[in-house]
Design brief:
The structure is a single chain. The protein contains twelve helices and 21 strands. The protein is an alpha+beta fold and 411 residues long. The chain has two domains: 243 residues, FAD/NAD(P)-binding domain (3-Layer(bba) Sandwich); 151 residues, no CATH class. The strands form six sheets. Strands 13-16-15-14-17-18 form a six-stranded antiparallel β-barrel. Strands 7-2-1-11-20 form a five-stranded parallel sheet, sandwiched between helices. The termini are close together. It binds flavin-adenine dinucleotide.
Length: 411
């Protein structure tokens, strides 16, 4: 029977273990936390958005998109749904975003744990792997009290995002020690820190907006959704979605600016008309009262300040230039980004082990036979919306299938 050792009991490691055991391999799963699936518990705000019906390739980012495409064909979102339904999850579809009907991420972690139990997978929790070596065709996996040996090793240690859940970058270290190149992991799906002092005044404001990221003055990507203003800068889903590009651009020494369109439904000329129409009834108002009903008060105040309009000046006394300046702020409120929030605030990391170092979608290392990689440790990061977990399920399934079938068998 093939002996497979899986390092890391997160989403991809659990999927890999279950798949390998179903193929008849003797699986041992090593997890440094007290329990498996710790990160799963915090996904989707504790509800676990475990995949998405809309599977466009552009939601996955990697140096090797074709590889991702092929992998997703081999284990798709539909297969993920069937897999979880068979384990007892009733699926709730929220506009294509899929959750367990229980509304509890813990259900997902628990059905996976129950399945590992049913398949008699030996799960060693509180077991931190310290090193992985290969000698004479066999792997030696060292922990504090024991050295495990096996024919195949699956590295599923995650990235460096949310290290409190156990993913502290060990997988990159193991991959490098076995001769692999690692693309420097950077925080993604996270908030952005801005240099503007008025961020302090906006803290707590939420506003629907179109978010445009400009890198060295050129438009890189646009997203729309609810922006959350914070004392350090900007947060919220549309900001998370652009953050991976910010991380990479800042790493390359480029300048990043976020431009918010706070009224995407109105073009600039329409906005001027709108403000002019409103002036008929509100001409005697001044300061934030003019923008009452359009923006939250804190935001109106900052917009007027940035437009250089005194809070005391009545609307009817505004000059044309002041009006235009305000419209510019509404349509294009700018923030200079100094950095992304750190790994501890990130949901995922960009970078990791390049897919070019794998033997295709067998997920086996092209450098070390019998060594496999799964999950976020690889150079694939997804958009918000269930794509990162889909990658964990897809890569976990492929790696479990191939590690169980191929290679040398123990006596
Ligand atoms: C707050 C938050 C919310 C998220 N929400 C979503 C969402 O709703 N939908 C979505 O698709 N994605 C979401 N993600 C991303 C998603 O959770 C991850 O991409 C996914 O869990 C990665 O799975 P993984 O198996 O690669 O790594 P992980 O889940 O990080 O698992 C790695 C495991 O390896 C273990 N490990 C590491 N080093 C060692 C070692 N030396 N020895 C033994 N064990 C080790 C760790 O303890 C950990 O359990 C979210 C992430 C965060 C942080």
């Amino acid at each position: 029977m093939k002996k497979v050792l899986v390092i890391g009991g997160g989403a991809s490691g659990l999927m890999a273990s279950i798949t390998a055991a179903r193929q008849g391999a003797k699986v041992t799963l090593l997890e440094k936390n007290r329990q498996t699936g710790k990160k799963l518990l915090v996904t989707g705000n504790g509800r676990c958005n475990f995949t998405n019906r809309n599977q466009e390739l552009s939601y996955y980012r990697s140096e090797n998109q074709e590889f991702v495409k092929e992998a997703l064909k081999a284990f798709s979102a539909d297969q993920t749904v069937r897999f979880f339904e068979e384990l007892g999850i009733l699926v709730k579809d929220c506009g294509g975003y899929l959750y367990p009907n229980s509304g509890q991420a813990a259900s997902v972690a628990e059905v996976l744990r129950l399945e590992t139990q049913r398949l008699q997978i030996k799960t060693a929790c509180n077991t931190e792997v310290l090193s992985v070596e290969k000698k004479d065709g066999l792997f030696y996996v060292k922990t504090e009290g024991w050295t495990y040996t096996s024919d195949a090793v699956i590295l599923a240690c995650g990235s460096m995002a949310a290290p409190g859940t156990g993913s502290t970058g060990d997988g990159y270290r193991f991959a490098e020690s076995l001769g692999h190149r690692v693309i420097r992991p950077l925080p993604a799906l996270t908030g952005l820190c801005a240099s503007q002092k008025d961020c302090q005044k906006l803290s707590g404001v939420r506003m629907e907006a179109k978010v445009t990221l400009q890198i060295d003055g050129a438009v890189c990507i646009e997203e729309q959704g609810e922006v959350q203003f914070a004392s350090y800068g900007l947060s919220g889903i549309p900001v998370f979605q652009v953050s991976r590009y910010v991380s990479q651009a800042l790493e390359e020494g480029k300048a990043c600016e976020i431009c918010l369109d706070l009224c995407p439904a109105y073009k600039e000329e329409k906005m001027i008309e709108l403000l002019a129409e409103r002036a008929e009834g509100t001409g005697n108002r001044s300061g934030t009262d003019v923008l009452l009903g359009m923006f939250p008060e804190k935001l109106s105040k900052v917009l007027l300040e940035r437009a250089g309009i005194s809070g005391k000046k009545k609307r009817k006394d505004w000059t044309q230039a002041e009006m235009q300046s305000l419209v510019r702020q509404i349509k294009s409120m700018r923030f200079t980004i100094t950095k992304c929030r750190g790994y501890d605030q990130a949901q995922v990391c960009t970078g990791g082990v390049p897919l070019s170092q794998l033997k295709g979608i067998s997920m086996e290392s092209a450098l070390v036979p019998g060594l496999y990689f799964a999950g976020e440790l690889l150079d694939v990061d997804g958009a918000c919306g269930g794509y990162n977990l889909q990658w964990a399920w897809t890569s976990g399934f492929l790696v479990g299938t191939c590690a169980a079938r191929d290679g040398v068998k123990s006596q």
